[in-house]
User: What shape does this take?
Amino acid sequence: MNRLRERLSGLADARRHVHLTRRVAGDWDVTGLVLAVGRRLVLLHQTRDFQLDGYVLLPLRDIARVRCTAVDRFAEKVLAGEGLMENVGADWDVPLDDPSRALAALKRRGDYIVIECESRFAPEDDDFLIGPVVGLTDHEVAMRIFAPDGRWERDRSYVMLDTITQIQFDTPYINAFRKYLASPPLPRQRD
Assistant: This one.
């Protein structure tokens, strides 16, 4: 884990574009520019189709492979040529020591987020939640989530922190949903 953290830290210092292969079903890669590395999390400014695509926090334990190749150099060249490299970075510090502290910071900011809990074995077992954080303990996060049709779920959803495989925030996808959502209904309390 220390070698991985050191490698990612060097890539963050140089603001390099990378492909990270993760230990989840389908070996989904995440692409982006490494911004910072903590004890348990790495922060990337995601890219997709030569565009900046918001931020993602990934647990270091789930990273199987780091690639930084000529393909990534070309992505950096395109992003720079399009004037996007000057927009890379977060304008505030995200705590990267543990998911609980990162989620607490996102809650304080009022961010809507995406939490994914991806299976290591079967993609059909994946969970995808989108909405604001409304509660947090050292082991669990509570969210107000909404469905793909923009309807809010009445009950809170709870996720164990150790099952989270990625946290996304300030993405075009999340921001578009938030712009057009109705206000959430009052939540029911957990029994």
